[in-house]
């Protein structure tokens, strides 16, 4: 079995974000980056499957982006992936989800992958389109938002998270793409010996221009932070005056007192 | 000149940090209160490879470098100084000398269990009357057939309470001073090894600081480490490397306290504003951060020099000095920024302040470090 895990490196969500000069993406200077959290579950699930199958499957982990994404690839290698593909692209943020998916599909074509794991979405762009589009381009089956995964004799049982806390279980034959939701498993910590072993694993570098054949179909119109919230209103005065003021605000500014 | 960590070191740092935040940080207060690190955490740190980071893979180590080791101790110490010194004393003072001075047979016999954390290591040099003056030790050894027989006592032995594997120093004749000292690998489960007590301390309370009586302890002759009479050199060389570990521990404690103080200064409001808007607090933060960064640069430099097999004696003495003094300064200011809350156990900087002090003392007092540096300057 050949497994592909698609991961993205994203800014640490604790960071303070500033917009870039074009106002189309965030400014990357001074940001710390880490593996997209959803993708950590994808890597872990792939490694668990490899362990379940006695180490037979080969896991390739792929990431698109500038040189820094190698850190995320190395982490995945230290978690148990076998080899990595770095699709080098300094302007990755100008690609729309369609192009990103087509780059991944371009790499995957002819590689004979049976199963593709990826996160349900990235923490920075959050389009949740790449996984399903890759499946479509490769002609694979697809299940999204996995919170449970089992595999037996060529068939995946995928537990999916639905609205309102209900779950759905679907069966899926290989080849397939699955996208992983938070809580699917407990991603392991890369141990020091495995970080050392990862240094000896292969990282193939491919230029994005070799794989990108598609033009963008959507473009970023603009990006802006939420408006700063005001400091709230302090109502002062006699209790009765306070109540009157509060009632007036509730009537004028909110819907809570309006008749249905 | 490039001051950035390599990608491999960044991956390591992030991975260690994730482990520390999830597995160690939540236990730090308990470790301080109960005066012990849970066995389960020691086991997990062993599985993570924290207890043999820079030792070669063939002896059960992770095969990484000294800089990786410094990063591990630093990251762990951000959350828990006791766990930091467990790693530092174990790795630098037990695994280190066995690897550097041991025979192939000794390395194969002792290192795999140490490097994977199955056995915890310690360094038995200090005695009631021999601290900084290590040549004055009075614990004796005498050859008796296939064994050396050891008599004496040791105090302030970090990790001693685990009764694992120790690197022990004893003299054939006290009058020979440092020339009479030899080093031995000792299994502390041997008959005649008795724990007199685990000390109660100001800080790093989760770390064992043990006093031993050694009564006719028989050590097989093959456990002699290096040559007879080479013990003092082994001790000094070992402490030289150990200082990088203690500097990293001190650095971590300082960073842990700084992070808390910085966050608190943004949350705490007085006179209608967060206190970080007051210049008095801003200047404290600037001084704290500058000391942390200075210590970090010197600590990483010492580690990199050791990695590239260059002389690092001066830098290891300086990084230990700088980082430990940064730790006592930063933790003190962190309490000041917290005001009364900083004096309360629940706010953690109180523990960090107590944990910091020992870093100015052990593995060579800062006065000894200044002797080392000035001697090299004037030699």
TrEMBL record, chain B:
<feature type="domain" description="Acyl-CoA dehydrogenase/oxidase C-terminal">
    <location>
        <begin position="229"/>
        <end position="375"/>
    </location>
</feature>
<keyword id="KW-0274">FAD</keyword>
<dbReference type="InterPro" id="IPR009100">
    <property type="entry name" value="AcylCoA_DH/oxidase_NM_dom_sf"/>
</dbReference>
<keyword id="KW-0560">Oxidoreductase</keyword>
<dbReference type="InterPro" id="IPR013786">
    <property type="entry name" value="AcylCoA_DH/ox_N"/>
</dbReference>
<comment type="similarity">
    <text>Belongs to the acyl-CoA dehydrogenase family.</text>
</comment>
<keyword id="KW-0285">Flavoprotein</keyword>
<dbReference type="InterPro" id="IPR009075">
    <property type="entry name" value="AcylCo_DH/oxidase_C"/>
</dbReference>
<dbReference type="InterPro" id="IPR036250">
    <property type="entry name" value="AcylCo_DH-like_C"/>
</dbReference>
<dbReference type="GO" id="GO:0050660">
    <property type="term" value="F:flavin adenine dinucleotide binding"/>
</dbReference>
<dbReference type="Pfam" id="PF00441">
    <property type="entry name" value="Acyl-CoA_dh_1"/>
</dbReference>
<dbReference type="InterPro" id="IPR037069">
    <property type="entry name" value="AcylCoA_DH/ox_N_sf"/>
</dbReference>
<feature type="domain" description="Acyl-CoA dehydrogenase/oxidase N-terminal">
    <location>
        <begin position="6"/>
        <end position="118"/>
    </location>
</feature>
<dbReference type="Pfam" id="PF02770">
    <property type="entry name" value="Acyl-CoA_dh_M"/>
</dbReference>
<dbReference type="InterPro" id="IPR006089">
    <property type="entry name" value="Acyl-CoA_DH_CS"/>
</dbReference>
<protein>
    <recommendedName>
        <fullName>Cyclohex-1-ene-1-carbonyl-CoA dehydrogenase</fullName>
        <ecNumber>1.3.8.10</ecNumber>
    </recommendedName>
</protein>
<feature type="domain" description="Acyl-CoA oxidase/dehydrogenase middle">
    <location>
        <begin position="122"/>
        <end position="217"/>
    </location>
</feature>
<dbReference type="Pfam" id="PF02771">
    <property type="entry name" value="Acyl-CoA_dh_N"/>
</dbReference>
<dbReference type="InterPro" id="IPR046373">
    <property type="entry name" value="Acyl-CoA_Oxase/DH_mid-dom_sf"/>
</dbReference>
<dbReference type="GO" id="GO:0003995">
    <property type="term" value="F:acyl-CoA dehydrogenase activity"/>
</dbReference>
<comment type="subunit">
    <text>Homotetramer.</text>
</comment>
<dbReference type="InterPro" id="IPR006091">
    <property type="entry name" value="Acyl-CoA_Oxase/DH_mid-dom"/>
</dbReference>
């Amino acid at each position: 079995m050949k497994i592909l895990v698609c991961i993205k490196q994203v800014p640490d969500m604790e960071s303070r974000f500033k917009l870039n000069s074009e106002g189309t993406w965030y400014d990357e200077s001074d940001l710390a980056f880490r593996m997209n959290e959803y993708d950590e579950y994808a890597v872990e699930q792939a490694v668990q499957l490899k362990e379940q199958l006695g180490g037979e499957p080969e896991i390739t982990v792929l990431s698109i982006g500038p040189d820094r994404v190698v850190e995320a690839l190395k982490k995945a290698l230290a978690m148990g992936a076998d080899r990595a593909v770095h699709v080098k692209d300094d302007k990755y943020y100008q690609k729309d989800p369609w192009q990103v998916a087509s780059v991944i599909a371009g790499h995957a074509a002819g590689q004979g992958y049976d199963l593709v794991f990826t996160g349900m979405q990235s923490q920075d762009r959050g389009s949740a389109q790449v996984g399903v589009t890759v499946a479509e381009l490769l002609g694979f089956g697809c299940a999204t938002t996995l919170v449970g995964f089992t595999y037996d004799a060529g068939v995946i049982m995928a537990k999916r998270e639905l609205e309102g806390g209900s779950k759905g279980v679907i069966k899926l034959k290989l080849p397939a793409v699955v996208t992983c939701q938070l809580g699917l498993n407990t991603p392991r910590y890369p141990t020091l010996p495995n970080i050392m072993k990862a240094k000896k694993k292969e990282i193939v570098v491919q230029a994005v221009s070799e794989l990108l054949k598609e033009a963008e179909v959507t473009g970023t119109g603009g990006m802006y932070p939420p408006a700063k919230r005001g400091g709230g209103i302090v109502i002062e005065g006699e209790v009765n005056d306070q109540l009157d003021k509060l009632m007036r605000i509730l009537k004028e500014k909110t819907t809570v007192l309006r008749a249905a | 000149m490039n001051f950035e960590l390599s990608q491999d070191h960044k991956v390591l740092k992030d991975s260690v940090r994730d482990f520390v935040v999830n597995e160690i940080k939540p236990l730090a207060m308990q470790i301080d209160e109960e005066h012990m690190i849970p066995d389960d955490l020691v086991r997990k740190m062993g599985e993570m490879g924290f207890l043999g980071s820079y030792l070669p893979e063939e002896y059960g180590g992770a095969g990484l470098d000294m800089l990786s080791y410094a990063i591990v101790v630093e990251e762990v110490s951000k959350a828990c100084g006791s766990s930091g010194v467990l790693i530092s004393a174990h790795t630098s003072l037990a695994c280190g000398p066995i690897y550097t001075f041991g025979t192939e047979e000794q390395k194969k016999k002792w290192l795999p269990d140490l490097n994977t954390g199955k056995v915890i290591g310690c360094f038995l040099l200090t005695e009631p009357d021999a601290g900084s003056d290590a040549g004055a030790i009075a614990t004796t050894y005498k050859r008796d057939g296939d064994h050396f027989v050891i008599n004496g006592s040791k105090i302030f032995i970090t990790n001693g309470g685990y009764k694992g594997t120790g690197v022990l120093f004893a003299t054939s004749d006290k009058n020979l001073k440092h020339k009479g000292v030899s080093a031995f690998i000792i299994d502390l489960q041997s008959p005649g090894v008795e724990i007199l007590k685990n000390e109660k301390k100001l800080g790093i309370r989760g770390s064992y600081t043990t006093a031993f009586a050694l009564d006719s302890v028989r050590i097989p002759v093959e456990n002699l480490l290096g040559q007879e009479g080479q013990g003092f050199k082994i001790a000094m060389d070992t402490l030289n490397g150990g200082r990088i570990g203690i500097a990293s521990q001190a650095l971590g404690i300082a960073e842990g306290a700084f992070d808390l103080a910085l966050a608190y200064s943004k949350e705490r409001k007085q006179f209608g504003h967060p206190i970080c808007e007051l210049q008095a607090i801003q200047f404290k933060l600037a001084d704290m951060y500058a000391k942390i960064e200075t210590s970090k640069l010197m600590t990483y430099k010492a580690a990199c020099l050791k990695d590239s097999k260059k002389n690092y004696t001066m830098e290891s003495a300086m990084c230990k000095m700088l980082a430990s003094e940064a730790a006592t300064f930063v933790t003190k200011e962190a309490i000041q920024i917290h005001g009364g809350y900083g004096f309360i156990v629940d706010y953690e900087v109180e523990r960090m302040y107590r944990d910091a002090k020992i870093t100015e003392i052990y593995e060579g007092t800062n006065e000894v470090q200044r002797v080392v540096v000035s001697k090299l300057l004037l030699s």
